[in-house]
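Practice problem 4.
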């Protein structure tokens, strides 16, 4: 046992080096968003790209990730919690929202939940939404496919939104004429990435990447839509976060639309937002889509009273959030009654 403990301590101390090495390999490979900001590394990557060494690194990376994914993923998640909160999570008897969130992420990293994968996939989730609340709450799907070069640009409207189904914040808003090749090339890069490796959210691991093109939503005054994010516990919305496309606001409201002191983004505004039209219907839709889940965030749009589904989120901000004031972490944690088995504690100190 002492030897195993020493090994675990050494593994934690060497974690930074392991991550740095993986970061370098990611750059040599198909491209993760993490990169080494040094001149020599950039030069080496550019020289090796497309060579046999590039393919060897890709192969080694694939084998390494397959063998070490679970253990390394769990270590990275635990290190992330410590980095955000400055202390280790209580996984034996989690009380706080963020502790329960990491319990979920660790459990998924050990054994995937196929339903979470289906509902995290922005394309396959449409079938669930249609069956639960009706197709009228789905944004019009103009095209979808796995080959960006097959996008029928000539028959698309002047305004539309391009996104991928398997990741976060991979969105292109099109208004008017665009550089088609630039869009195709950017999408081709996105489709090669497995979003799991960004933050170890395993519900993304098995999603088959595809491109989705949806109609552009705008209010009558020409403004873009706000994103109403309902934090739901066993089918009951408890708080509503309002966001915009720039992600530079962070107000929260209760179900009576009283603004709360809750937030998690530092240095952004928390402006008062008018209660949306048909708010009670939004509450019903969020409740219906979240039924049966101990926690899920239901994202909806409201265009002059017309309600559209955005997405279902099982691990908000990939766990990288610190609720403020601190009391909210416990308050929302009390709302979360974990239905699935909690992960057992690993000795990572």
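Answer key:
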């Amino acid at each position: 046992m002492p030897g195993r403990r020493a090994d675990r301590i050494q593994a934690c101390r060497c974690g930074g080096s392991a991550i740095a090495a993986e970061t370098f390999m990611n750059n040599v490979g198909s491209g993760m968003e993490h990169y080494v900001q040094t001149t020599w590394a950039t030069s080496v990557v550019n020289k090796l790209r497309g060579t046999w060494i590039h393919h060897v690194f890709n192969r080694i990376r694939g084998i390494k990730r397959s063998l070490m994914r679970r253990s390394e993923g769990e270590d990275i998640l635990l290190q992330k919690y410590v980095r955000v909160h400055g202390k280790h999570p209580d996984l034996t008897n989690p009380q706080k929202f963020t502790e329960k969130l990491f319990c979920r992420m660790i459990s998924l990293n050990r054994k995937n939940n196929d339903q979470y994968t289906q509902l995290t996939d922005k394309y396959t989730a449409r079938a669930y939404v249609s069956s639960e609340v009706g197709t009228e709450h789905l944004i019009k799907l103009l095209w979808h496919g796995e080959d960006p070069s097959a996008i029928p640009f000539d028959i698309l409207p002047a305004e539309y939104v391009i996104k991928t189904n398997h990741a976060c914040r991979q969105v292109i808003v099109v208004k008017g004429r665009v550089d088609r090749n630039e869009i195709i090339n950017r999408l081709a890069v996105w489709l090669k990435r497995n979003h799991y490796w960004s933050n170890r959210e395993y519900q993304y691991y098995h999603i088959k990447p595809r491109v989705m093109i949806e109609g552009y939503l705008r209010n009558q005054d020409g403004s873009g839509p706000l994103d109403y994010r309902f934090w739901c516990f066993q089918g009951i919305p408890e708080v509503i976060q309002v966001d915009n496309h720039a992600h530079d606001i962070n107000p929260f409201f209760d179900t009576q639309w009283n603004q709360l002191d809750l937030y998690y983004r530092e240095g952004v505004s928390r402006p008062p937002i008018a209660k949306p039209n048909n708010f009670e219907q939004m509450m019903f839709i969020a409740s219906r889509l979240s039924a049966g889940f101990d926690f899920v965030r239901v994202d909806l749009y409201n265009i002059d009273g017309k309600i559209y589904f955005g997405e279902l989120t099982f691990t908000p901000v990939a766990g990288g959030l610190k609720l403020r004031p601190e009391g909210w972490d416990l308050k929302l944690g009390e709302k979360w009654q974990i239905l699935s088995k909690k992960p057992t504690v690993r000795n990572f100190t």
